[in-house]
Amino acid sequence: DSGVTQTPKHLITATGQRVTLRCSPRSGDLSVYWYQQSLDQGLQFLIQYYNGEERAKGNILERFSAQQFPDLHSELNLSSLELGDSALYFCASSVSTSNRAEAFFGQGTRLTVV
Amino acid sequence: DAKTTQPNSMESNEEEPVHLPCNHSTISGTDYIHWYRQLPSQGPEYVIHGLTSNVNNRMASLAIAEDRKSSTLILHRATLRDAAVYYCILPTYNNNDMRFGAGTRLTVKP
């Protein structure tokens, strides 16, 4: 158990809909990262937050947004969903933004868009 | 960001040592070398990391070349449970965000 909790574990929704994925980082970790993993793309970095502030952006679509709340949990919002958004979404956390810090990953949310 | 190059796949026999190579010829002095692995149907899992000196922990050893342009993850006795995709990554210095490549898929044969 990494200590990172993601909910829900599975989500099935229709095209055009909006969903929210939730991540609770390990206790004490201030930095949260979101990744998307689809069969043909591998693990893609989406976005990072540190102590409530956006820190780095990767290949995140404009239809997607995220935020980190004062209690440090984070949410990833996906809107106007398309079939191609079907993927595993992972959240990770680390204690700081230092590249010496190891990251801990959750078990992921499997999103299926039908 | 410095990039890494890994073989797409490797095979090993159970209970034998495994050496997983990684090239990072554009590494900078502040880049730490991290290794993660992803078991089937699970999230990535931290394995080990280092800067210049070789590192050991309960999971593996990390051997870093003197010029730091390559490194090797060593699993001392592979088990079936070690079958996974192994990623060698250089997180960004000021954010620690990680850009995953394709990694090396390790198959362990009984």
How are the strands of the biggest sheet of chain B laid out side by side? 1-9-8-3-4
Q: How many strands in all of chain A? A: 11
Order of helices and strands of chain A: EEEEEEEEEEE
Number of helices of chain B: 0
The oligomeric state of the chains shown is heterodimer
Low-confidence stretches of chain A: none
Q: Tell me what portion of residues of chain A adopts beta-strand conformation.
A: over 45%
Distance between the termini of chain A: 31 Å
Number of strands of chain B: 9
Determine the structural class of chain B based on helices, strands and strand pairing: mainly beta
Shape of chain A: globular
Order of helices and strands of chain B: EEEEEEEEE
What would the average pLDDT of chain B be, to the nearest integer?
94
pLDDT < 50 runs, ≥5 residues of chain B = none
Strand pairing plus helix content of chain A: what structural class? mainly beta
Radius of gyration of chain B: 13 Å
Q: Main beta sheet of chain B, described?
A: 5 strands, mixed
Instruction: Give average pLDDT of chain A, whole number.
Output: 95
Report helical residue fraction of chain B. under 10%
